[in-house]
Amino acid sequence: MRPARTAVIVPAAGRGERLGPGTPKALRSLAGQPILLHAVRAVAAARGVDMVVVAAPEDAIDETRGVLSGIEHDAQLVVVAGGETRQDSVARALLALPPDVDVVLVHDAARPLVPPEVVDRVVGAVRAGADAVIPVLSVVDTIKEVDGQGDVVHTLERGVLRAVQTPQGFRRDVLQQAHAASDGADATDDAGLVEGQGVVVATVPGAEEAFKITRPLDLVLAEAVLARRRASDGVG
Ligand code: C5P
Q1: How far is the CA of 13 from the centre of ligand 1 (A)?
Q2: Residue 11 CA, ligand 1 centroid: distance in Å
Q3: What is the pLDDT of residue 20?
Q4: Is residue 94's pLDDT more than 80?
Q5: Could you tell me the domains of the chain?
Q6: What is the per-residue pLDDT across 27-65, written as a single tens digit (0 to 9) for each?
Q7: Is 83 in the pocket of ligand 1 (CB under 6 A)?
Q8: Can you point out the beta strands (E) in 113-217?
Q9: pLDDT, tens digit, for every residue of 157-207?
Q10: Does the beta carbon of 34 sit less than 6 angstroms from any atom of ligand 1?
Q11: pLDDT(105) > 70
Q12: CB 112 within 8 A of CB 38
């Protein structure tokens, strides 16, 4: 019997309005190549990944296939149509998984610079027995809750807070059950759905370079990170 496999779902169907109007965020250029291309290359480079399923904007499926056709990788690559919300996009990608996949990661296209070690750490923790695993960082800012007027209600204790990144990893059955039970709720991350099912979500260390490209300044930072990587690889 062939060993069970690990797939990474990449929701990439968002418009990315906070980055400014125009092309869907995942297809915008970062150092001369679409953000999505960087993201897929990053996850496909991780040792434990056998398959990548991209949920693309419905009106840009062929364009997305074209963008991804040039990369060299050993992982199998599938492109499906995404949905109205991030959660819909992930649900559609789940339907495209073959039966022999038993571990599923979900990685935002908007985090193109995730180091492969973070992906491997998440896969490793699920393979070691966790139902659900998320990469996290300590929070550097003090976080306060405010009311409708913007007045502070209270200050959260920073030491117990974590900023959550992707890829988030799951036993396939755990993630599928959480999606089936979610009843159209629009969770901003998949671990949130799984928590709602009473499943324990474990954490592993994330990485600063796995930050999410959301606002224009994030693109400037991402270009700088790539330039630093190129310089340290002695390329270009
Ligand atoms: O908008 P935000 O940055 O939180 O989106 C996170 C990820 O979810 C992005 O990679 C985006 O492309 C994806 N997404 C999606 N389908 C949607 C909305 C967002 O795949 N309908």
Answers
A1: 6
A2: 6
A3: 82
A4: yes
A5: 5-134+164-233 (3.90.550.10)
A6: 999 999 999 999 999 999 998 899 999 999 999 999 999
A7: yes
A8: 132-138, 144-146, 152-155, 162-164, 168-171, 201-205
A9: 999 999 999 999 999 999 999 999 987 777 788 999 999 899 999 999 999
A10: no
A11: yes
A12: yes
Question: Quick check: 12 and 80 in contact, CB under 8 A?
Answer: no
Mean pLDDT, residues 14-37 taken together = 89
Residue among 19, 89, 114, 214 to mutate when testing ligand 1 (max atoms within 8 A of CB): 89
Pocket test for ligand 1, best of 9, 37, 80, 86 (most atoms within 8 A of CB): 86
Residue 5 β-bridge partners: 101
- Integer Cα distance of 76 and 30 in angstroms: 24
- Which atom of ligand 1 is nearest the CA belonging to 83? 21
**Ligand 1 binding pocket includes 190 (Cβ within 6 Å):** no
Is the distance from the beta carbon of residue 48 to the nearest atom of ligand 1 less than 6 Å? Answer: no
Report residue 16's pLDDT band, with 50, 70 and 90 as the boundaries: confident
**DSSP assignments along 56-123, one per residue:** E-GGGHHHHHHHHTT---SSEEEEEE--SSHHHHHHHHHHT--TTEEEEEE--TT-TT--HHHHHHHH
Mean pLDDT of 64-93: 91
How many Å apart are CA 37 and CA 34, to the nearest integer?
5
- Cα-to-chain-centroid distance, residue 223: 19
In the chain, what percentage of residues exceed pLDDT 90? 83
* Residue 47: both structure tokens together: 């040792």
